[in-house]
Design a protein that fits this description.
By secondary structure, the protein is α+β, with helices and mostly antiparallel strands. The radius of gyration is 37 Å and the shape is globular. 26% of the residues are buried.
Length: 280
């Protein structure tokens, strides 16, 4: 509300003229009323304190240097994940890219393997577990996503496996496709698989078959192999396999797919073994 001119109001109540009142001198003219904008500038309205706005689903930010420092602290534990398995798989090597969602409390909401050429689910599980149990810098403005790649080398004295392609496996799957589809549980997109194949039947603890079937020799069938050679289907098996899902929603299917793939008879890769990558 604008303030009124109190001098003018007093004159009207007393019945005085606009030029004089009795013999007394006319009152001094009052200052002109300032225009509305000048009033607002002189008496600004109270400003309510601003409230921080947050859009649901918006990703926050996290200081990269602080994140790198945490990864450096976790590096020794991550290396132990690889060294523990390289005793069983001497040629174990490759790259793993992990995706993390960090909550505002500094804890990992989830971690999963986004890409991998390592080829060992047990090592990849270990990496996920280490980073899931790590405390991270608290992001600002909401949860933050972090991606990090690691490279692992085989021991210097390890023999490199023969490099297979997906064409070398085209005769192997057959009826196992039914179980693979069941493992996918409707997840769309491609699962990228890297596996190590070795000669001989799988060890009992590596097979998902019953104890009676474990001692049954695998069925062998002659198939064409690389370079025109013959190889016995069933004379080899997958000793280790790693899988990158098409997205986080596919991560729960990996355990089932690993077991299904290890049951599939493989061609004999020879004494060096083989490493192969394909999509399913």
């Amino acid at each position: 509300m604008r303030p009124r001119n109190h001098h003018v109001l007093a004159m009207l109540v007393a019945g005085c003229g606009l030029t004089h009142c009795g013999s007394s001198a006319p009152p001094a003219p009052s200052a002109p009323e300032p225009p509305p904008r000048e009033l607002e500038a002189a008496n600004p309205p109270p400003v309510a304190p601003e409230r921080a706005m947050r859009v649901e689903g918006q990703l926050g930010s996290i200081e990269p240097g602080a994140v790198d420092a945490v990864f450096d602290q976790a590096l020794e534990a991550l290396q132990r994940c690889h060294s523990a398995r390289v005793r069983q798989i001497r040629a174990l090597s490759g790259d793993v890219k992990l995706m993390l969602r960090i909550g505002e409390d500094g804890r990992a909401r989830y971690v999963y393997v986004e890409e991998t050429s390592l080829g060992d689910h047990l090592t990849e599980q270990c990496l996920v577990r280490v980073l899931s149990e790590t405390t991270w810098p608290r992001p600002s403005g909401g949860e933050a996503e972090v991606r990090k790649s690691f490279g692992f080398a085989a021991p210097a004295n390890a023999r490199s496996p023969v490099a297979w392609t997906a064409d070398d496996l085209k005769e192997t799957f057959g009826p196992k496709q039914v179980k693979i589809r069941s493992c996918r549980a409707g997840v769309t997109g491609m699962f990228n698989v890297t596996a190590y194949v070795t000669s001989g039947p799988p060890a009992p603890e590596a097979s998902g078959a019953t104890s009676k079937a474990r001692h049954k020799p695998p069925r062998k069938r002659q198939v064409a192999a690389k370079h025109g050679k013959k190889s016995n289907l069933g004379a080899g098996h997958i000793v280790a396999v790693g899988i990158a899902p098409p997205g986080r929603e596919g991560a729960p299917a990996i355990d089932c797919l690993v077991e299904a793939l290890k049951e599939i008879p493989m061609p004999d890769p020879g004494p060096r073994g083989a490493k192969v990558t394909w999509s399913l």
